[in-house]
Design a protein that fits this description.
Elements (H helix, E strand, L loop, with lengths): L1 H10 L10 H44 L1 H9 L4 H35 L10 H28 L2 H5 L3
Helix pairs in contact: 2-5, 4-5
């Protein structure tokens, strides 16, 4: 580099010598994309956390509203899996409907973002199916916790004042 700078001074003494390496230039170009990726990752994690807290609250409310029904079903011989299914089926339907409505918006948003790149990839349906399946599993885990807790509760305590 010192030799190049010396030769530059001989050829063009009025212009300052500036150098850069191609790999550094390319890394600088993708640095903004990496920052954007981190921001989207943090925002997604925060969104998922807030959605899970909302789902947790809705599950608590749904089980609390149906606690007497669950107690009566338990007295009549219903099993814990039956009660989990009873509480979970409505929420699973809602999560599946929400996923179907979210797919077109996500597809168009991601397609527009990926169109800005020179080398493009296609987004397959597996990406959206995996996202829907993971949301259904999160919802099922949250609902199962509340339903199992309600199903294992003593029905005498729940129905005492009826």
């Amino acid at each position: 580099m010192a030799l190049l700078e010396k030769q530059w001074g001989l050829v063009a003494p009025e212009t300052p010598f500036f150098h850069s390496f191609l790999d550094d230039d390319i890394a600088n170009q993708y640095q903004a994309e990496e920052r954007w990726s981190q921001i989207i990752g943090y925002a997604s994690a925060l969104t998922i956390l807030i959605a899970c807290l909302g789902l947790f609250g809705l599950a608590t409310l749904a089980v609390t509203n149906r606690i007497k029904e669950i107690a009566i079903r338990k007295v009549l011989g219903a099993s814990v899996p039956d009660m989990v299914q009873l509480v979970s089926i409505d929420f699973i339907k809602l999560v599946a409907i929400a996923a179907v409505f979210a797919w077109p918006m996500a597809y168009f948003g991601i397609s527009r973002w990926l169109a800005a790149f020179t080398y493009r990839i296609d987004i397959g349906p597996w990406t959206f199916l995996l996202a829907a399946l993971s949301s259904i599993l999160i919802a099922l885990a949250t609902l199962s916790y509340h339903a199992i807790r309600a199903a294992l509760a003593n029905p005498v305590q729940t129905l005492r004042y009826e």
